[in-house]
Amino acid sequence: MEKERIYSSSIEQDYAYCEEIIKEHSKSFYFAFSKLPKEKAQAVYAIYAFCRLADDSIDEAETKAEQAKALDILNHQLKQFELGNEMNHPIWRALRDVFDRYDMSIEPFYDQLQGQAMDYHFEQPHTMKEVEDYSYYVAGSVGLMLLPIIATKNHHQLEEPAVALGVAMQLTNILRDIGEDCREINRVYLPASLMEKVGYSVEYLRQGRVNEPFIVIWESIAVRAEQLFLDFRHVLHLFDADSQFPVALSSKIYAGILDAVRENNYDCFNRRNKTSFLKKMCILSEVKREFSKI
Questions:
Q1: CB atoms < 10 A from the CB of 133, how many?
Q2: Which of 276, 282, 239, 238 is nearest to 260 (CA)?
Q3: Rounded distance, CA 201 to CA 68, Å?
Q4: What is the tens place of the pLDDT at every residue in 29-68?
Q5: SS3 category, 219
């Protein structure tokens, strides 16, 4: 259950610090979750800031040794947080406030770091199941982190749908970032078995070749993501009333990335596909109409 917060200028500054991080790095998430009541929105910002901290620990390290050291430090900091000895830093102070007020579990936070370790020890997944297992650690875990905030009464029964939504979003990320991941960090998240089946090689990927086999691969993963997005809609009514609209909005905006790629002729190599501001406003109006009928 959510507990009442005792306001102080310092905790407000901590949350403001976290809010700047999500505003800078994820305009889509910020657009949707800023529609939550203030305290819930701030809790989401704190969780996003933690995940960003974890993600940056891998991406900003220049060597494998530095990556390993960064992950060790984060694991140590999370363990200290679990023991009640968190660092004197805005993200950790904000997270402490979140844990004090909501029925949070620490395990998804460790799972998120495990996901970063999977990037550190990266190998191209062979099967679609391996892609989805990876997607749980880096994104499904985030769904579990957010649940106690946006489903305060029903979060224990919504764990599977929340993970599925996170997986859908990560599959969307993979499809959006195919070219950038291959070119900049030498990672291929597409399942090797599927690439072999249709005759599309990693070399073709490096060349940015968009052909029929590429589209077959892309669409097979996109259809899976879209089904997960659709399935999630069936449990939306179990979330807190004040959270249903922002959650619905975030899922539709993210699903809109897939439409953007299609509209750009599957060019994931030379352009950054995203849900445009105009499309976001159209989705906002669409979701408002849906909720006005409830």
A1: 15
A2: 276
A3: 30
A4: 898 899 999 999 999 999 999 999 988 877 777 787 888 8
A5: helix
Instruction: Give the whole-angstrom CA distance, residue 245 versus residue 292.
Output: 11
Name, in order, each residue with C-beta under 8 angstroms of 240's C-beta and a sequence gap of 6 or more.
Answer: 150, 151, 152, 153
Sign of CA dihedral 228, 234, 236, 238: negative
Tell me: pLDDT of 91 over 80: yes
